[in-house]
Design a protein that fits this description.
Length: about 120
């Protein structure tokens, strides 16, 4: 546990460095916090031992069908794919978003908040 806490603390420093280098509210977590979310909403109450958020965390607020409807122009729709993987594989929250499918497919998804 101590080791994990140390890793989390060093990641925290890394994250602080990242966010001061980038413009404010560049990353998903910043934009969520700006909308009133607390760190704990995604990471659980103990920020010394933060939970790694998974798809269930996201689906507490986001409805998959609603998101798929809003993004119906995407072909195929990553929110309605035979194997879409966790939301956070693409929608990273503390770094630029990535097109995770690209590892195997050539879908031309443009992540709005991806690397510029
Ligand atoms: C406590 C509620 C809540 C949780 C939990 C949450 N979100 Fe959000 N999210 C919102 C709200 C509110 C918005 C703004 C309205 C909208 O776009 O749906 C938003 C917007 C977004 C957007 C639109 C782009 C942007 O950032 O402006 C993405 C992508 C997103 N969330 C992904 C995620 C992912 C991935 C997770 C899980 C790690 C997550 N959200 C967890 C409430 C939440
Ligand atoms: C293949 C990567 C990928 C995965 C996995 C993925 N998305 Fe997305 N998502 C996108 C793309 C591409 C867009 C459209 C461009 C953008 O908004 O960045 C998008 C848009 C969104 C939006 C904004 C919709 C709008 O226009 O208001 C939300 C909210 C969102 N996704 C939530 C989720 C949630 C929740 C999950 C997990 C259930 C998820 N996404 C999984 C790629 C992905
Ligand atoms: C919308 C959900 C969301 C919010 C809000 C959020 N995070 Fe995160 N956090 C994530 C996700 C998802 C990851 C996994 C890596 C990534 O996506 O960048 C993560 C990773 C981390 C990690 C790395 C720890 C690990 O388990 O690997 C730390 C530390 C962290 N976040 C701290 C914070 C702090 C501090 C805040 C409040 C300022 C915050 N987070 C707000 C979703 C969130
Ligand atoms: C590790 C490799 C891998 C990743 C990552 C991956 N796929 Fe696939 N995908 C495959 C393989 C292999 C097939 C063909 C076998 C099958 O149909 O199951 C396939 C088939 C598909 C198909 C049906 C056939 C087609 O090409 O139209 C869709 C749609 C699809 N994937 C969407 C996605 C989406 C969206 C993502 C990202 C969220 C993704 N995949 C990520 C390997 C991958």
């Amino acid at each position: 546990m101590m080791r994990f806490a140390a890793i989390a603390a060093s990641l925290c420093l890394g994250l602080a460095a990242l966010s001061s280098a980038a413009t404010a509210a560049d990353f998903g977590a910043d934009r969520h916090v700006a909308r009133g979310l607390k760190c704990e909403t995604c990471h659980g109450p103990d920020m010394k031992n933060p939970n790694y958020p998974d798809e269930k965390t996201c689906l507490a607020c986001h409805n998959r069908d609603d998101v798929a409807a809003k993004t119906k122009a995407l072909e195929p729709n990553p929110h309605k794919a035979p194997h879409n993987g966790d939301c956070t594989l693409c929608h990273m929250q503390h770094e630029p978003e990535v097109n995770y499918c690209e590892q195997c497919h050539q879908f031309n998804f443009k992540m709005k908040n991806g690397a510029k």
